Q: What sequence folds into this?
């Protein structure tokens, strides 16, 4: 089969050397390691379809991989050495940018930051934004239904996808690269593949919606005594600015403490409780005045205790760097167990309090690093623990509190291989059975990213 694949893809399209394959078999945190039979690097949809046909005939499992920035070890093969990694990185063309129809058509391997830059050249905005956008690829972004810091205003990736091209488990090509805002002609099948984490098919191209690039962007950092005041600030700013708020990040003092410790960067506001990073954007004048008025009100009413508005591009970058360095600072600090959870927005303060005290009772040495997209009810509730503390026990304590508040155990990072057992525990039986039904229909041999999202079944 390897010989046949080499004839199909050329020598550079098939990696079998252990050292060459190593980066494709380890996640970015260097905590999950697998082994692959080979790594395939096709250059076209036709090649992807041929690979899928071959693997289908031979019964070989496929692990699709984009930028390999998954937070849930979703793109790594298992340890058997019998799975094939299908990397989309060489399919990275920007096929078209349409500033009038406000769409962009991209191959799956195009890096998100490259796609955003291409849109900006035409005065258009692709608003999907998160820390790994310099490595994450469009196929991975679509397949994880990525969120990020602009969801509050623009929605998740799903809201941006107008069309998809997908190669199914048996090599069938579904060509839906349509640039349409309206298309109610039958079932909207692309929705099944968005967020399916490579378990149903290979995304080879996507058409994404663009927006006008806002002329004005105002970034502010504020300190608030606690998450309850953080939500009061969200409400006040929404009243003041309407839907101009594009990001509203709630960050604990502990998180910024880690950034200061490992990167030497200090928040430019006074406060030892919580912080809010707020960004507003619009093309009409008066945005800055609106943010200033909101800030003044928040300070007068005691909702916020201090605040700054960035005066320059470099100050804006410095404020965002504080937020973006949290994940890496946490990695430097030591072992952490990540919980990317969501609860209904008003329940966020109670969730934070309940989960923190539940942990303090059961695991007194645990330290909570909480930060995230509070405007979406999404918090990264990460727990720093010594190596002898069991991950499963900590996960259960946190996720039980999530469930008690009607939340989700994965707000935006997906299930991957990390959360398979947790999904089976917290999702209802009929919902799981429905998911298995979809999987069986589209991947009857169970060859697409096995062991991710759903546990394998007989
Ligand atoms: C520092 C950092 C910050 C992050 N912040 C956020 C955040 O704020 N919000 C957020 O949602 N995520 C975040 N992530 C997680 C991650 O970046 C996203 O999930 C991203 O969308 C993954 O893209 P990728 O190309 O790296 O996919 P990969 O990691 O390569 O793959 C992710 C999943 O998609 C599947 N897949 C990849 N490509 C394809 C394809 N073409 N067809 C079918 N399946 C495919 C893989 O099998 C895997 O299951 C962050 C990650 C890091 C490292």
A:
């Amino acid at each position: 089969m390897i010989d046949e694949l080499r004839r199909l893809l050329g020598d550079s399209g098939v990696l079998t050397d252990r050292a060459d394959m190593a980066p494709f078999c380890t996640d970015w945190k260097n905590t999950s390691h697998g082994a692959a039979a080979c790594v395939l690097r096709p250059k076209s949809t036709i090649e992807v379809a041929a690979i899928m046909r071959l693997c289908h005939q031979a019964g070989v499992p496929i692990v699709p991989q984009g930028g390999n920035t998954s937070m849930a070890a979703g793109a790594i093969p298992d340890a058997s050495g019998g799975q094939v990694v299908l990397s989309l990185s060489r399919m990275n063309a920007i096929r078209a940018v349409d500033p009038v129809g406000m769409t962009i058509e991209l191959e799956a391997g195009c890096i998100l930051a490259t796609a955003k830059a291409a849109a900006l050249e035409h005065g258009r905005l692709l608003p999907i934004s998160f820390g790994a956008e310099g490595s994450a690829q469009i196929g991975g972004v679509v397949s994880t239904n990525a969120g990020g810091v602009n969801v509050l205003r623009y929605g998740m990736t799903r809201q941006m996808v107008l069309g998809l091209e997908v190669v199914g488990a048996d090599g069938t090509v579904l060509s839906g690269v349509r640039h349409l805002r309206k298309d109610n002609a039958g079932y909207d099948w692309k929705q099944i593949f968005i967020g399916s984490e490579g378990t149903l098919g290979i995304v080879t191209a996507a058409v994404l919606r663009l927006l006008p690039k806002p002329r004005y962007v105002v970034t502010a950092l504020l300190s608030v005594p606690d998450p309850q005041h953080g939500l009061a600030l969200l409400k006040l700013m929404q009243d003041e600015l309407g839907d101009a708020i594009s990001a509203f990040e709630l960050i604990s003092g502990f998180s910024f403490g880690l950034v200061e410790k490992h990167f030497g960067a200090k928040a430019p506001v006074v406060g030892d409780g919580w912080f809010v990073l707020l960004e507003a954007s619009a093309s009409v004048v008066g945005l800055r005045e609106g943010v200033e008025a909101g800030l003044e009100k928040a300070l007068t009413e005691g909702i916020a205790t201090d605040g700054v508005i960035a005066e320059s591009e470099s100050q804006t970058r410095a404020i965002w760097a504080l937020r973006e360095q949290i994940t890496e600072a946490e990695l430097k600090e030591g072992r952490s167990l990540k919980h990317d959870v969501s609860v209904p927005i008003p329940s966020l303060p109670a969730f934070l309090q309940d989960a923190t005290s539940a942990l303090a009772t059961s695991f007194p040495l645990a330290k909570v690093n909480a930060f995230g997209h509070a405007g979406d009810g999404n918090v990264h509730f990460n727990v720093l623990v010594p190596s002898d503390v069991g991950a499963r026990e900590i996960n259960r304590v946190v996720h039980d509190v999530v469930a008690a508040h009607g939340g989700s155990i994965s707000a935006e990072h997906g299930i991957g291989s990390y959360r398979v057992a947790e999904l089976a525990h917290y999702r209802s039986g009929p919902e799981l059975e429905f998911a298995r039904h979809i999987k069986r229909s589209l991947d009857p041999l169970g060859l697409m990213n096995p062991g991710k999202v759903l546990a394998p079944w007989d």
